[in-house]
Inverse folding.
């Protein structure tokens, strides 16, 4: 049986599937954290603007 990783990719993909399958070194951050941090910073800045700005 052939390995699934060594199977050829469709030509219409342009090699994008192979590019995104590779693991890269670096930090692994949950997408929920990536979305929640900017939303919370926006909310905090609105609260500061409402209550503490003259």
């Amino acid at each position: 049986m052939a390995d699934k990783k060594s199977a050829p990719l469709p030509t219409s993909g342009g090699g994008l599937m192979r590019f995104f399958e590779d693991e890269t070194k670096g930090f692994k951050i949950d997408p929920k954290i990536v979305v929640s941090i900017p939303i919370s910073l926006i909310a905090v800045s609105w609260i500061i603007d409402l209550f503490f700005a003259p």
In short: The radius of gyration is 22 Å. Residues 44 and 50 are 10 Å apart (CA to CA). Residues 31-52 form the longest helix (22 residues).
